[in-house]
Structures are given as structure tokens and as C-alpha cells.
């Protein structure tokens, strides 16, 4: 259970599950998105897996992590610059940035600022990065903010569907089975 909350913190910048009419966009054009999939984490000697649903827009995020059978584990909300992580107890944790929030709840900082871009198959603009590309010109690996992102599979439209993210002592695997893209996800 604690490891799924860690996975939630790692994916705080993500978001999913909206109701607006959505239209296809290239991965480089996406400003707002929803995704749903599976998440697996390994932190030191602990491992866990679950489901993730995430809705992202410029000013807000909503992320829900559930167990493999659908029981809620944690929910992260970002409204403007405030983050709230609600655990299954339920207990709310608040912070002005995701890194502070993860430090409060988990005891260590996780650099989450890039994840919103990484799941869309691109580096964070304006930040140092090292990358390799596959034969189609898509990212194969990306090293940024201390993380290594391996892009293992893409959809035909260029959106990633399988990613492996590693940071010292932490591994996150994300299998995205549903993407919804659009200008008004909220």
C-alpha cells in the first residue's frame, strides 16, 4: 500500500479521466490530456502494482491510483500551484510543489516537474537532457533531472504506451492503455 502511494507521488504530474469531447493531436501538440493504464513500482526492496487514471490541463491535475482490483489507494490534485495528496486512510497532505509533497509523505524528494512532458514522448523544454532516438525519430531513451526514461512502445500516432523510468533506488513502469487528447479536457 505504501509503495502505491510512492508511485502516486512519482506520477503526481500526470492526470486522467475527463468528460470533454476530445480530438486527436500529435504528441508534440498535446496541452491537455487524459490517460489510463497500469503502474508498477520498485522502491528499494519493495514492489507493487496498480492502476492509474490521470487528467492533466495547464492549471490542474487529478490523479487516482487504485489497487489491481480497483480499491482506491491515493488521489493527487493540483489546482494552480497547490498540491493535495489524499491517502486511503483518508488523510490529506498539502504542499506548493510536488517535490515538497513527496518529501513530506515519503521522506525523500522526487523530481516530478518533467513527468508531464516525458509521458508525451518529449523532453522538458529549456532543461538539459541527453537523448537517443529510434529509427522513426521518436525518443528511445531520455536522461533528464536525474531520471532515465526508456520508451519501450509507441502507438501509431507517436504517443508512448510503455515507459520505464528509473532514479537511484526507484523504478517506475507505466503501461498506458488509453489516451484521450483535447483542448478542453476539464
Mean pLDDT: 80
Number of domains: 1
Measured distance between first and last alpha carbons: 29 Å
**Major sheet attributes:** 11 strands, antiparallel
Radius of gyration: 15 Å
CATH topology annotation: outer membrane lipoprotein receptor (LolB), chain A
Number of strands: 11
Secondary-structure element series: HEEEEEEHHEEEEE
By CATH reckoning, the class would read Mainly Beta
Shape: globular
Strand order of the largest sheet: 6-5-4-3-2-1-11-10-9-8-7
What portion of the residues fall into strands of 2 or more residues?
over 45%
CATH architecture: Clam
Provide the structure class.
mainly beta
Please count the helical segments.
3
CATH homologous superfamily annotation: Lipoprotein localisation LolA/LolB/LppX
Which stretches of 5+ consecutive residues score pLDDT under 50? 3-28
Query: Approximately how much helix is present in the residues?
Result: 10-25%
Write the layout of secondary structure elements.
Blueprint: H1 2-10, E1 33-43, E2 46-56, E3 60-66, E4 72-79, E5 82-87, E6 92-95, H2 98-106, H3 115-118, E7 130-133, E8 139-144, E9 147-154, E10 160-167, E11 170-181
Helix pairs in contact: 1-2
